[in-house]
Specification:
With 147 residues, the protein is an all-alpha fold. It has five helices and no strands.
Amino acid sequence: MKGIPTWIAGWVVILAIAGIALGLLELLNPGSSGVLDVDVDLESGALAARGWGARSLALGVTAAVALLLRERGAFGVALAGAIAREGGDLYTAVAESQGFTNYALPAVMGIINVVAFFGVIGSAWTSRRSKNDIAPPDGPPTMESMI
């Protein structure tokens, strides 16, 4: 995976599979994933479930594309989206005074996403640094060496 630590690639696989699967479940049959606590009999509940499903599907596809591209930048984008999602979920849980279980999952996933994001940045920094560690030239540049 071009310098991506294996555990980060594994985490992104989980994000892709879970995002796509849960997203499709909620889009096609609101409330069927069992993750959301909404009354889908109400129009607003079904709308919220489908919106959550669309968001999950989009971020799952983003993670899948990152895996296909095998580039650090794509992994960074997928993880940044996951961090934003978990941050939004955590904010919503706090703002709506939801129970501990509604705080726990986005908090744990958010922490894993942040650590993985910094792992991607760290692997890029290490790789870039090693490429730039070259010996200086023996003498001043000449016209022939610059052409």
